[in-house]
Amino acid sequence: MYVLRDTDPVEIRRTQAERRAETRARLLDATVECLSEFGFAGTTTTAVAKRSGLSRGAQLHHFPTKADLVAAAVEHVFESRLVEFRERLALVPNGQGRVGAAVDLIWEFFEGPTFEAWLELTVAGRTEGELGERISVVTDHLHERITAAWHELFPEAADENPDAPLILFCLFEGMALIRLTGSRFIRERSDALLVMVKAFADVLIPEHAPSPTGATS
């Protein structure tokens, strides 16, 4: 009879749901990388399958069309970053500097491959009917989630300026778009512009607004 010893390796069997979630995550992460690197036109389902290390059949099983795949990819990454935003901001002490920390975290949404992928899809969706509809739904959903998270973190400001997070997002979207064009204006002045945005945010959001219990959930 075989006796399991403490030194023997133990294989932990994953559930079907866990394996499915891992496969989807690999496909979605690979999609964002391809969108950032190759653009929408160069992001094919074959390229995504190759980048993810999975079979084309696995990719088609989870995402039958390219529109399904790319729309889900952007939502997947933004949802992950939204969770990170809430968790990191919850670590910032209440009071002076909390709004500035929130602005810094929001600006991070517009740096790196996530924003580049979203921009590629937004431009492509203008002439791709099915994709445009999917991206519109995803964008509305994300704005709603971000606004809700912001109001939870700054509850006293929610009634005074409920559109504050959307205003900040519009400012940052413009800055990020200009930066992607290679404009020296934004590159050379980004730090100064960020200081101005923080000053504007201080007007919109009272610094005394407390963080509610359970903001990291």
Structure overview:
- With 217 residues, the chain is mainly alpha-helical.
- The chain has a domain at 71-204.
- It has helices at residues 16-42, 45-52, 56-62, 66-90, 98-108, 113-125, 129-153, 155-160, 164-180, 184-204.
- Helix 2 packs across helix 3 (56-62).
- The longest helix has 27 residues, at 16-42.
- The N and C termini lie far apart (47 Å).
- The model is unreliable at 208-217 (pLDDT under 50).
- Provide mean pLDDT, rounded: 79
**End-to-end span in angstroms?**
47 Å
Helix and strand string, N-terminal first?
HHHHHHHHHH
Q: Can you count the helices?
A: 10
Query: Main β-sheet: number of strands, strand sense, barrel status?
Result: none
Low-confidence stretches: 208-217
Q: What's the alpha carbon Rg, rounded to whole Å?
A: 21 Å
Question: How would you sum up the global shape?
Answer: globular
Query: Total number of β-strand segments?
Result: 0
Helix content: over 70%
Structural class: mainly alpha
Beta content: under 5%
Q: Notable features of this structure?
A:
about 220 residues; disordered C terminus; mainly alpha; single chain
